[in-house]
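During the no-cost extension, the postdoctoral fellow (Dr. R.K.) reprocessed legacy sequence entries with the updated structure-token encoder. One reprocessed record is reproduced below for audit purposes.
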Amino acid sequence: MEIKGQGSSVHIRSRPTVAISDYSVNQDIQYQDIVDEKQELLIDKAKSFSFKIDDIDATQSNIALMNELTQDAAYQMKIAIDTHVLGSVYADATNAISTLTMDKTNVIDWIIDAEVLLEENNIPTEDRWLVIPPKAAGYIQKSDLKDASITGDSQSIVRSNLNNGRLGKIGGMTLYVSNNLARSGNTFQCLAGHKSAVTFASQIVKVENLRLQTKFADAVRGMNVYGFKTLIPSGLVSMPATIS
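Re-encoded structure tokens follow.
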């Protein structure tokens, strides 16, 4: 999937729904025509970075300053885009749980309640996910689920490596930890859902190294274009949680 720039669009394939019919002995079977369903995703959003390094600073620096800053720009870009997406799509959810004042005694029930809502909407069991803030992950790690045998995972949630954001699995939900959820004070807009509920596409389309004309300085600038769209609102659950 190639994204040419802001304002372009990409076609996202959606899985068709297969109709189920009654059957009687010797009945002629009617075959459903399957259409390759596609959704158009508009790449209508963009974020950029730009910085310059004066020649004197570059000379005095004892690290490869330009490379370090370019890597940091990519990291900050990821945070900015995640914050935008997570801070937007939760409002599309047609399922919601009342705001919970969370502690380690009720966090698991809260997760199961979200899973029940997805089940009631006939959302597939595979590829369900939940995004929670770090403090919620701490409550889970302090709960009885620190015993790996309860979760069915190969290792305890306490030993999970959060470097990739994945905490573990509870029921049919894969838990991800993010510091980029929308929040108001101590209330976080946590979100559960299914892989098919939201589509997203992103690409860095430009990174340029420049020699500035009016200064003794080198500069770098870059642009990341992206788009996202909620396809199945019933496949999302809004789960606000107040965490002191």
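Residues 65-89 form the longest helix (25 residues). The chain has one domain: 9-242. The remaining legacy entries will be reprocessed before the final report is submitted.
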